[in-house]
Design a protein that fits this description.
Layout: H1 3-6, E1 11-16, H2 28-31, H3 36-49, E2 53-58, H4 62-72, E3 78-82, H5 91-100, E4 104-108, E5 130-133, H6 138-152
Helix pairs in contact: 4-5
The protein binds 1,3,4-trihydroxy-5-OXO-cyclohexanecarboxylic acid.
Length: 156
């Protein structure tokens, strides 16, 4: 079976928002020492072992993240979204997730409910299938697992 056929229905976009390019250096007590590149490499290997295809986008700009979601329409079967600070403020990103209608798993490295009150509100939570928060870099692995579960049980 060709690569394209093997991954049919299991294509995942992993979207990372502002400042996550600094992972590893940025507030390590909060976010750990793993870099985004290391997280992406781990996810690529993991997704491959699960017969899924994965793409990554990180941007510090709201519009670019929205564009990436639009581009994912017609390609992605699911999305893992860590919108970082935009989680708490971006109606535009929320609307893009609704418009794209791609099953979405919201992911955070830190437990947003154990932090400042302004982080307790997510504008994405109720338009996502679910939320994973507080497991550090491992949150992304759990995100992939959740996304594959959604795809595997779709329609059942
Ligand atoms: C974050 C939590 C957000 O509140 C924060 O603005 C981030 C990272 C997380 O992954 O824990 O930048 O999304």
């Amino acid at each position: 079976m060709g690569e394209a056929a093997r991954n049919e229905g299991r294509r995942i976009l992993v979207l990372n928002g502002p400042n996550l390019n600094l992972l590893g250096r940025r507030e390590p007590d909060q976010y750990g020492h793993t870099t985004l590149k290391e997280i992406e490499e781990d996810l690529r290997t993991y997704a491959d072992s699960r017969g899924a295809e994965i793409r990554f986008v990180q941007s510090n700009h709201e519009g670019e993240l929205i564009d990436a979601i639009h581009k994912a329409m017609g390609w992605a079967d699911a999305m893992i979204v860590n919108a970082a600070a935009l989680t708490h403020s971006s109606i535009g990103l929320r609307d893009a997730i609704i418009a794209a209608a791609i099953p979405t798993v919201e992911v955070h490295l830190s437990n947003i409910y154990r932090r400042e009150e302004f982080r307790h509100r997510s504008l994405i939570a109720d338009v996502a299938a679910g939320q994973i928060t507080g497991f550090g870099a491992f949150s992304y692995r759990l995100g992939i697992e959740a996304a594959l579960h959604l795809l595997d049980t779709k329609g059942s």
